[in-house]
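User: structure tokens for this one?
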Amino acid sequence: MSPRNPNMESSIYEGSDGWWHGRVTMGLKDDGSPDRRHRRARTEREVKRKVRELEALRDKGRAPKAGRKPTVETWMTTYLTDIASLKLKPRSLDDYWSKTRNDIIPGIGKHRIDKLQPEHLERMYRIMLDEGHAPSHVLKVHRILSRALKIAHRRRLIVENVATLVDPPTVDETEANPFTKEEAKAFLEAAAKRPTFMRWCVGVGMGFRQGETLGLRWPYVDFGNELFHPQWQLQRLTWRHGCKDPHACGERLHRFDPCPPDCKAHKKYKRGCPKPCLKDCTRHASVCPERKGGGLAFTRPKTKKSQNPVPIPPPFLPYLREHQARQEEMRTAAGDAWEEHKLVFTRPDGRPLDPRQDWEEFKELLKEAGIDDRRLYDGSRHTAGTILNELGVDMPTIMEILRHTQISQTRRYVKGRSHLSKDAMRRMGDHFMPGPEPTTETRTETVDRRAARAQRRRRIR
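Assistant:
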């Protein structure tokens, strides 16, 4: 009879099935029973290698927990439902869910997280790029997946985060295209013909984000100290099911077959036909009778710095008071149909302005002002930062006005102008290479005659 192995020592033996087996003692499970892990291989040498690797992880305290590991789909669902939802803002969480449903689960959802390899991620990214997704979209998917696997590694569900071994696609930073001073004036002149004139003054002249502008309320406008307090923002959130069976709730909207090539139902969709539903689809929460958490909602700004007060330019104050008086007239005209939200910018019945319609109005104003097409961010925050810089405002002050947390972020919002660069280099040249002093005709002739007389004296000598 062979002697018993000491505690914590592994055992290796050849089984009757022709395989070599290794048993490694890892400690105790949560219920107090021994945690013995099993490894097997065709040769004794291979099983010894596997046993040594497991023992090394145990000794370093990095061994994964016992039990079958979840698939990527299961773990992503757990991560977004129980972990990320406690920290992320609602809009960011919606974006995480969207990219998980549409990209991560169809691509690698069936793999177990402990069996995931870098090649699986690289293949998924290549397919996404071939399907026409932008590199920036693929990079966002990579960051979401990497964050989820980082939490899994921290909780010892996996030995290594394979996302750190993969290089995502390189993304060229989108170049800002802000208004010039002349374009900004032309844009505001076109906006002055509309009742939303002050909305665009705040966006272009103060660099407010769209959600901050549409979510601005009168209690947070301090006329006495001439300050705006952007404590809230207006965002459109995705509806969530409140019923017990989301799949059955959205049954009438499920579509499992792809659209034909000549589809006419979605011809107005800018992104093409939507993807078919998954077999266990739980979407279409907009038709749920107990839906919750969606539609236009007031949320807090993303960072605490974004809630800092911003000074109101004094020339804006008379127009702002006029806008307030005009809104009082609309409230009186609407009567009982008025919905009170205490918003600065509203529809005729008091409801918030729709962000989509606000974006469409921005595009219309560009055409009316004769300005080429550009992003809403270019015409607001990038424009405000760039014009402030042209007016001689230093970068830390611009950072405070735009409420950025890092000055490097502010520098990305400020675009240099070629005429300012030329003027700066002209002044640099004048400093190092001062021009010749102006001379008069009389002085030049006198100098010449004096030199000629000296030359004649030298010849005589």
